[in-house]
Amino acid sequence: MEDKPTELKYMDESLQGTALSGDDERGDRKLYIESYGCQMNFSDSEIVASILAKEGFGTTRNVEEADLVLLNTCSIRDKAEQTVRKRLSSFNKLKDSRPELKIGVLGCMAERLKDKFLDEEKLVDLVVGPDAYRDLPNLVEKVEGGRKAVNVLLSKEETYADVSPVRIDSNGVSAFISITRGCDNMCTFCVVPFTRGRERSRNPETILAEAKELEARGFKEITLLGQNVDSYLWYGGGLKKDFDKASDAAKATAVNFANLLELVAEAVPGMRIRFSTSNPQDMTDEVLHAIAKHNNICKYIHLPVQSGSSRILKLMNRGHNREEYFNLIDRIRKIIPDCGISHDMIAGFPTETEEDHQDTLSLMKYVRYDFGYMFYYSERPNTYAERKMEDDVDMETKKRRLNEIIALQGEHALERAQEHVGRVEEILIEGNSKRSDSDWKGRNTQNTMVVFPKTGTEKPGDFVKVKITDCTSATLLGERVQD
Ligand code: SAH
Ligand code: F3S
Fold first, then answer.
1. Residue 77 CA: which ligand is closest?
2. Residue-level pLDDT at 121
3. Range list for CATH 2.40.50.140 in the chain
4. 277: cis peptide before it, omega within 30°?
């Protein structure tokens, strides 16, 4: 049996930082970088490591021997920001004993707080927003000269398309490729459009080149990343919102997400393709058919819904109501039978009543999600909800509703897991199981973790057939069978 239940684990996803795990001895100076929050931040840290490698920085997993410490931060909920602040204060002692050590903050908190960070946290030398990482060499030079440095400019074009990420936080099997940056959706609770700027897509040629490079290096799975991947649209560069102004020729040759998925699936037929995150309002049947058509595109969709109440969805500016979401779920089930589906849910959005909460539970019962990431509402500065609505659901009620959502999800996860028992499934081996070195862990196409005993003839990166014999709500247990 593996780990804690997935849904509980992900509830705390931004509460613990993860350091890049590999040591890269090449550099004469040492970079220690820790990432918080979403997968995009983990991917961005690999881009940052690549940019700084060119400046002679090797990475280390030992903060004590670092010359430069960077925290890639998350602002999505208040708790995530508090965690970063606590971590920063833990560096005080380190800096007392080694005044030459430089400390920088990257990511969404950097963008949100800008130079205020320097006043609020005296030990911070460097503040860099998500679109300004190319400027790191200059900024680092400045802080090494004894000054403080800030760059939080957001960009219309930056996608880091030509930066080849250093895959040091990697199991050698799976890797992220970022395909869009920013988000235009303006969900009223969400800070991301403010911290990551307007939505723009990356040149598909550079995405395909990165996929092929990963394949050549032995990777077996890629996850295409963006805040809203279904909204991907390449028409030669520039913001998504400016597409209407593009020339007819650019429009005629534009590449949308369904096109991109197919291009990637065909370019690297031996690799598994995953993607995250899908926004219900932007998911098209064309995308669903592309998934159904290609064996190597995983049958799994992360489809955040946030609430089951049409009234709340409207207040959240989610762009769809409950019925439209059900309709999308029905189409997924029809076009991709056996597709894994997961969700994000927020309990206690402003004005949420008991009836709205019951709508959330009944929506979950309709879908019966494989797993989910569940949160209580956290008011974020400058969002529409913060400016125009009162955070009027008390904490006790938020937590009670959240617990009810988590409990129901636990039941559904177990039911869904049980459906796999007795089947033979293809598993991509990722590495040793956390519990035992004599077991492998890997995932099936639906993204459920599978644990099974080693037989001595397989290794990480292999696709093997496993007969599922038992399960918990988060993990399938099985035995390898011959192909
Ligand atoms: N489209 C994005 C969503 C980013 S935020 C993606 O790529 O995943 C991830 C999740 O955090 C959201 O789906 C939402 O469920 C949750 N979230 C965002 N803002 C929040 C807030 N103010 N309070 C509580 N949860 C929030
Ligand atoms: Fe946030 Fe909504 Fe975009 S949750 S990241 S504004 S899709």
1. 1
2. 93
3. 424-481
4. yes
Instruction: Quote the ligand 1 centre to 187 CA distance (angstroms).
Output: 9
Ligand 1, atom 1: closest residue by C-alpha: 227
Three-class DSSP category at 56: coil
| Residue 36 DSSP class | -
Q: Could you tell me the CA-to-CA distances from 39 to 13, 138, 190, 277 in Å, in that order?
A: 10, 26, 17, 10
Low-confidence ranges of the chain (pLDDT < 70): 1-27, 168-169
Residue 29 φ then ψ, to 5° = -120, 155
Contacts of 199 (CB under 8 A, 6+ apart): 180, 181, 182, 183, 184, 227, 228, 231, 239, 240, 241
Count of CB atoms situated within 10 Å of the CB of 438: 9
Which distant-in-sequence residues (6+ apart) come within 8 Å of 434 by Cβ?
Answer: 2, 3, 441
| Residue 433 Cα distances to 430, 439, 452, angstroms | 9, 5, 8
DSSP letter for 448, please. -
Token pair belonging to 197: 């700027």
CATH code, residues 174-416: 3.80.30.20
> pLDDT tens-digit profile of 143-176?
999 999 999 999 999 999 999 998 866 789 999 9
Q: Which fold has domain 4-151?
A: Rossmann fold (3.40.50)
* CA angle, residues 426, 430, 431, in degrees to nearest 5: 125
- Residue-wise pLDDT for 232-241, tens only, equals 999 988 898 9
* Cβ contact 221:272 at 8 Å: yes
pLDDT score recorded for residue 9: 29
Instruction: Give the chain's mean pLDDT.
Output: 93
Supply the pLDDT for residue 12.
36
Q: Considering only CA atoms, which residue is closest to atom 1 of ligand 2? A: 190
Give 55-87 pLDDT, tens digit per residue.
Answer: 999 999 999 999 999 999 999 999 999 999 999
Closest ligand 1 atom to residue 226 Cα is: 7
182 close to 231: Cβ distance less than 8 angstroms: no
Regarding pTM above 0.85, the answer is yes
State the ligand closest to the CA atom of 385.
1
CATH 2.60.120.580 fits 424-481, yes or no: no
All CATH 3.40.50.12160 domain ranges in the chain, comma separated:
4-151
| Numbered ranges of CATH 3.80.30.20 in the chain | 174-416
Q: What is the β-pairing status of strands 300-302 and 340-347?
A: parallel
